[in-house]
Automatic annotation (TrEMBL):
<feature type="transmembrane region" description="Helical">
    <location>
        <begin position="81"/>
        <end position="105"/>
    </location>
</feature>
<dbReference type="GO" id="GO:0005886">
    <property type="term" value="C:plasma membrane"/>
</dbReference>
<protein>
    <submittedName>
        <fullName>GTR2 protein</fullName>
    </submittedName>
</protein>
<feature type="transmembrane region" description="Helical">
    <location>
        <begin position="15"/>
        <end position="36"/>
    </location>
</feature>
<dbReference type="Pfam" id="PF00083">
    <property type="entry name" value="Sugar_tr"/>
</dbReference>
<dbReference type="GO" id="GO:0005903">
    <property type="term" value="C:brush border"/>
</dbReference>
<keyword id="KW-0812">Transmembrane</keyword>
<feature type="transmembrane region" description="Helical">
    <location>
        <begin position="111"/>
        <end position="129"/>
    </location>
</feature>
<dbReference type="GO" id="GO:0046323">
    <property type="term" value="P:D-glucose import"/>
</dbReference>
<dbReference type="InterPro" id="IPR045263">
    <property type="entry name" value="GLUT"/>
</dbReference>
<dbReference type="InterPro" id="IPR020846">
    <property type="entry name" value="MFS_dom"/>
</dbReference>
<dbReference type="InterPro" id="IPR005828">
    <property type="entry name" value="MFS_sugar_transport-like"/>
</dbReference>
<keyword id="KW-1133">Transmembrane helix</keyword>
<feature type="transmembrane region" description="Helical">
    <location>
        <begin position="42"/>
        <end position="60"/>
    </location>
</feature>
<feature type="domain" description="Major facilitator superfamily (MFS) profile">
    <location>
        <begin position="1"/>
        <end position="135"/>
    </location>
</feature>
<keyword id="KW-0472">Membrane</keyword>
<dbReference type="GO" id="GO:0070837">
    <property type="term" value="P:dehydroascorbic acid transport"/>
</dbReference>
Length: 168
């Protein structure tokens, strides 16, 4: 519920990066908690707090923000296909993690969350260097960021572009 208001104040990119970094730190804390659990009984609390923080940071960033970004990165024409591909990738990855986690945990033991931490670091770096801020920007402005060109003084909207092509 708070995300709806927070995303307009803080921006999509900053919340996404904060969520990824928080999840990364939580995954490292879970690993430390699991590794040291046999030596310190109180590490179970560290692991539990890390799990709760992981979920909270997911709900702040990587949970909802990709849906905002996908909807804003594509113009009206390809948007439904892009959202379908994003949804498929999301659920396919969820399925893979759900089906394989027990086998990976058996294989890696207490270090199972190191894999997630490494992936989160890669996602953070990718988002930091490649994902633009989309808050308050039109599709044309976002597309210009990807083209690395400056937008002309007055960019033609998609609707105006369609009107112009039908009048010709």
């Amino acid at each position: 519920f708070l995300q709806v208001f927070l995303v307009e104040k803080a921006g999509r990119r900053s919340l996404f990066l904060a969520g990824l970094m928080g999840m990364l730190i939580s995954a490292v804390a879970m690993t430390v908690g699991l590794v040291l659990l046999s030596q310190f009984a109180w590490m179970s609390y560290v692991s539990m707090v890390a799990i709760f923080l992981f979920v909270i940071f997911f709900e702040v960033g990587p949970g909802p923000i990709p849906w905002f970004i996908v909807a804003e990165l594509f113009s009206q024409g390809p948007r439904p296909a892009a959202i379908a591909v994003a949804g498929f990738c999301n659920w396919a990855c969820n399925f893979i993690v759900g089906m394989c986690f027990q086998y990976i945990a058996d294989l890696c033991g207490s270090y199972v969350f190191v894999i997630f931490a490494a992936l989160l670091l890669a996602f953070f770096l990718f988002a930091y260097f490649k994902v633009p801020e989309t808050k308050g920007k039109s599709f044309e402005e976002i597309a210009a960021v990807f083209r690395r060109k400056k937008l002309p003084a007055r960019a033609m909207t998609e609707l105006e572009d369609l009107r112009g092509s039908t009048e010709a």
